[in-house]
Design a protein that fits this description.
The strands form 2 sheets. The chain has a 4-stranded mixed sheet, sandwiched between helices. It has a 3-stranded antiparallel sheet with strand order 3-2-7, with no helix packed on it. 17% of the residues lie in helices and 28% in strands. It is globular and about 40 Å long. The chain has helices spanning 57-69, 131-143; strands at 14-21, 27-31, 44-45, 47-50, 76-85, 93-100, 115-119. The chain contains 2 helices and 7 strands, in the order ββββαβββα. By secondary structure, it is α+β, with helices and mostly antiparallel strands.
Length: 152
């Protein structure tokens, strides 16, 4: 796991997101609503959200995956990868998890946002993705063993 990049900053609210990858090496992204009052409107992001009071990041990501897309019990091998602060949006300290899922994203019951879609890593540079999310995805991709590393 990467070190926390927020040493010395004041305590803040927490959140959690999941990098969900299928067997083809594609990443599941969530197109956020384009409305006022939410962080990163109209951007592609990862499924996840804020921790409720007293809730740890593992429980939060499981709850958020279930609430947002019905994936609470569907993903395999949830692994905590790193923590990054969303300095330009919500201000939350975000825990990044990775998991595997081979389903059809078009059949998920999307409860928030516009759509879910798998993307091959080489197409991510063309998408509007929040800085901290892109950083977490890049950390994940570069952490893969060379023989499993996905093309960029």
């Amino acid at each position: 796991m990467h070190q926390d990049t927020t040493a010395g900053l004041p305590a803040t609210a927490r959140g959690a997101v999941a990098i969900i990858v299928n067997s083809r090496g594609e990443l599941l992204l969530h197109l956020r609503d384009d409305i006022d009052g939410i962080a990163w409107p109209g951007c592609w992001s990862l499924l996840g959200g804020g921790c409720d009071p007293g809730e740890d990041d593992v429980d939060a990501i499981c709850r958020e995956l279930d609430e947002e897309a019905g994936l609470g019990d569907e993903v395999d091998s949830l692994i905590k990868r790193c923590e990054i602060r969303d300095e330009h949006g919500s201000g939350q300290l975000i825990s990044f998890f990775s998991a595997h899922w081979d389903g059809d994203e078009t059949q998920l019951p999307l409860a928030e946002g516009v759509k879910l879609q798998f993307f091959a890593p080489e197409f991510l540079d063309d998408l509007k993705i929040p800085f901290f999310i892109r950083d977490g995805i890049n950390r994940y991709l570069t952490s893969l063993p060379p023989k499993r590393r996905l093309p960029r």
